Automatic annotation (TrEMBL):
The chain crosses the membrane at residues 50-70, 156-177, 189-219, 225-252, 264-284, 320-341, 347-366, 387-405, 425-444. Keywords: Cell membrane, Membrane, Transferase, Transmembrane, Transmembrane helix. Residues 11-22 have a biased composition (Low complexity). InterPro entries: GT87 (IPR018584), UCP010361 (IPR016570). Belongs to the glycosyltransferase 87 family. Residues 1-40 are annotated as: Disordered. This is Glycosyltransferase 87 family protein. It comes from the Bacteria.
Length: 500
């Protein structure tokens, strides 16, 4: 005889099991031997208990961020001024302490409104960052003590910014973990990323990264207005998040979900305007500095154009036109992929591709730009092998740029010469292209996509998830299966986990 409770439990549908990475990723399974082997069949990997995935991932992110701060200790101890180029030989450079003085924060100048003396700013005149990033920098300066000891104040300013950026890092990891409901452990790719730890405190990019990650989480939860607002705020902190609206338009067009898209677009436009219009109205010269500087700056570190310039001796004065033309060409390819692919690509896949295209064609590819791609990579291609191949290339470039600057500023021919630096640039460009190629293959051969192998369609797609195509230029594949149609292995694993 069964009880009513047992009848209720037997009638209830089996909840989709959380996908343990050691069950589907050979590299994760092999690496798990360091901590006792793959997860057991009856282990709890869902939300029950204190040690749920989100708490574990947050703690791992904090630990890795702390290691990244420790890596900056040689520079911190001397206030980033110990010798002519030691901050490069120790690979611990950061823009944050230098710009505290060079952009007027040490003198309590208001960003965008107060002109920075040329002797301080090197002729920059105004802060060359978007408005929300400028506000972030200004808030950090409020918590930095006044005094005559500039070196100490710069140390404190870096620490305050690091604490604020740590919050952004944790938010990013948690948002990625929650975007794919059944795959929270994909957030471990972000939390354990070596490039994430090494570059987190070079600049203020993590603010835009965190806002973008939460925006994508809101889209995955079918909340387009909230998603748009967060993407608009992210664009007010860094330009790249607005690029996500391009592939999203085509995905919604293909799926017939244009109403949701226009809600997201409207939310993004309103949020960006609310942040920017007050500064535009009252401090136009300061506001436009970011945009004029981006256009006028020459070919810079880490870019394809720098390799060409250094190898040919041509300063490439037309680099802006070349970069725009190549970017448009790559975007046209991504658009064709979205509309012609046999099965509609996932949002994270084409999001990664369009941001990668922007970085690859840009006049500068700074080390911290990798932060823009890491959360997107974890959602687009959650496989440790490919992720670590790419990360190895980025870490090599991280070391390469500082050794090159040590060579060019030290006056002792110690470091990485121009040819070696060009090789380092090529390595991290090729690493990014490799990950792009793997993602394109997943789009064209959906059965190779790790996220779709269990029957899912687009877990980060929100209203796109499971939607039928209404506009396709190519030959349409079978309609997407719903996420409830999992493979038998995962269903069995879920039942066992529910009984445990």
């Amino acid at each position: 005889m069964t009880t009513a409770r047992e009848n209720d439990e037997s009638a209830a549908p089996v909840q989709p099991a959380t996908v343990p990475p050691t069950a589907e990723d050979p590299l994760a399974e092999a690496g798990s031997e360091l901590i006792g082997g793959p997860i057991g069949r009856r282990a709890t990997t869902g939300r029950r208990g204190w040690w749920n995935p989100l708490r574990v991932l947050a703690l791992v992110a904090i630990g890795m961020f702390a290691l990244g701060m420790v890596q900056k200790v040689p520079c911190y101890d001397s206030g980033w001024f110990f010798g002519a180029n030691d901050q490069y030989t120790h690979a611990c450079y950061s823009d944050i302490p230098h710009l505290f003085f060079a952009r007027g924060f040490a003198d309590d100048l208001v960003p965008y409104f107060d002109h920075i003396p040329d002797a301080t700013s090197g002729g920059m005149g105004f802060l060359e960052y978007p408005v929300l990033t400028g506000l972030f920098m200004e808030i950090a300066s409020w918590f930095t003590p006044h005094g005559s000891d500039l070196v100490h104040r710069e140390q404190v300013y870096w620490l305050v910014n690091a604490a604020m950026l740590l919050i952004c890092a944790v938010v990013t990891v948690v948002a990625v973990a929650r975007t794919h409901r059944r795959r929270p452990w994909d957030g471990l790719l972000v939390a354990l990323s070596p490039a994430f730890a090494l570059t987190a405190t070079i600049n203020w990019d993590l603010l835009a990264v965190a806002l973008t990650a939460v925006g994508m989480l809101m889209w995955a939860r079918s909340r387009p207005v909230a998603a748009g607002v967060l993407i608009g705020l992210a664009t007010a902190a860094k330009l790249y998040p607005v690029l996500l609206l391009g592939p999203l338009l085509l995905l919604c067009l293909r799926a017939g979900r244009m109403r949701a898209y226009w809600k997201a677009f409207g939310g993004a436009a309103v949020a960006w305007l609310v942040v920017n219009v007050p500064v535009m109205v009252f401090a136009w010269d300061g506001w436009e500095k970011f945009y004029t500087y981006s256009q006028s700056r020459g070919v810079d570190f880490g870019s394809l154009w720098l390799i060409i310039s250094q190898q040919t001796g041509d300063p490439l004065d037309g680099a802006n036109a070349y970069a725009i033309a190549l970017m448009l060409l790559m975007c046209a390819g991504i658009a064709a992929l979205i509309l012609y692919a046999p099965r509609r690509p996932r949002f994270a896949q084409v999001g990664f591709l369009v941001v990668a295209a922007f970085i690859l064609t840009n006049k500068v590819y700074s080390p911290q730009y990798v932060l823009w791609l890491i959360p997107l990579a974890a959602l687009a291609r959650p496989r440790w092998r490919d992720f670590l191949v790419w990360q190895a290339c980025e870490v090599m470039y991280f070391l390469g740029i500082w050794m090159y600057l040590a060579y060019t500023t030290g006056g002792n021919n110690k470091g990485l010469p121009e040819g070696g630096y060009d090789f380092a640039i090529a390595l991290h460009l090729l690493g990014t292209l490799y990950l792009c190629a793997v993602i394109v293959r997943d789009v064209l051969m959906a059965e190779r996509d790790p996220v779709r192998q269990d029957g899912s369609d687009d877990p980060s797609g929100g209203v796109l998830d499971g939607a039928r195509d209404v506009f396709v230029l190519g030959r349409r594949a079978h309609q997407p299966r719903h996420a409830a149609q999992f493979t038998s292995g995962y269903v069995e694993w879920g039942r066992e986990n529910a009984d445990a």
